[in-house]
Amino acid sequence: MRRRKTPWVSYLIIAAGSVMMIFPFLDMIFSSFKGADEYNRMSYSLLPDSFRWDNYRQAIESLQLGLLFRNSLARTVAVTALVLITSSMAAYALAKLRFRGRGFVFQFIVSTMMIPGFLFFIPNFYLVTHFPLVGGNDLLGNNGYGGLATSMLSLILPFSVSAFGIFLMRQFMMTINDAYIEAARIDGASEFRIFFTLILPMALPALATLAIFEFIGQWNEFIWALIIYSVNPELATLPVGVQMLKDHLDPSLTQPLLMAGLVMTTMPVLIVFIFLQKYYVRGMMNSGLK
User: d(Cα 272, Cα 215) in Å, to the nearest integer?
Assistant: First the structure.
């Protein structure tokens, strides 16, 4: 009854939280249209004196946006697709197939989520640079000139399997009634046919949720991309390009250009979320994650 009498309190809290979340994003957008003198002015103003669309042209030219966007998009789409495939197949095996050690395998996969990701950077870099028979390497991975570190595969393969993705998909598939699978088996369907024609369509909300997480995470991934950039600058991604622009140009003159670059970097993520948000909410509810 109290909630019914004072709904404005809830609305006020939600509105305040929304403003706190949206304001930095709006500041980034409007700052991308400002001049250098406006950005460094002591008196703060959200809106620019005049909208300078030329900032975006200069940002595109300074950042080599075509190359960076192509690398980021190719890497993000490939990693997301691989994670969806590997996570859903592993989750189906762990949720619906009976085999010895299934519980131990799942617990081991979940336990790897507790290990900080940066601890894998050194061994992963060693693996991609000494990959056998690639980049001039011999059968033992020696005597080469970079191995996989000089190709796009170095940005993709280390992230092609996700422990969180397996956990999320497994939790969702546990909610699927086994009667559907048993009926398909009685009709003579193979496990692959059951998986691709029965399980995957039913797991679409969880797949969309995982796709959003992976797309955002891989699109914004910086440290590994920076490591590979040190080997082959042609593999630079958008986060690396924005950082390079910040390091090599005068910050007092290029802040609006950086903001323009950040806006262009953020837009693909927002577009993906807008189109998949309804599946995201449904997948989070059905996967038992509150």
Answer: 8
Low-confidence ranges of the chain (pLDDT < 50): 1, 288-290
DSSP string, 145-214: S-GGGGSTHHHHGGGS--HHHHHHHHHHHTTS-HHHHHHHHHTT--HHHHIIIIIHHHTHHHHHHHHHHH
| pLDDT value at residue 263 | 84
Phi and psi angles of residue 64, each rounded to the nearest 5 degrees, phi first: 50, 55
> Any residues with CB less than 8 A from the CB of 131 and at least 6 apart, and which?
137, 141, 147, 148
Name the one residue in this structure whose structure tokens are 């390497």.
137
Q: Is residue 256 within 8 Å of residue 34, measured between CB atoms?
A: yes
The pLDDT, as a whole number, for residue 245 is 72
For tokens 């837009």, what's the residue?
Answer: 267
Q: What is the DSSP letter of 145?
A: S
Burial (CB < 10 A; 0-12, 13-18, 19+), residue 256, is: buried
CA separation for the pair 222, 226 (Å, rounded): 6
Q: Which residue has the tokens 């190719």?
A: 74
Four-CA torsion 96, 99, 101, 106, nearest 10 degrees = -20
- Determine the Cα–Cα distance for residues 167 and 91; give it in Å rounded to an integer: 7
> How high is the pLDDT of residue 258?
78
pTM assigned to the model: 0.79
- Among 256, 82, 255, 233, residue whose Cα is nearest residue 156: 82
Looking at residue 289, its pLDDT comes to: 45
Closest CA to 199 of 179, 187, 181, 225: 181
CATH class of 63-286: mainly alpha
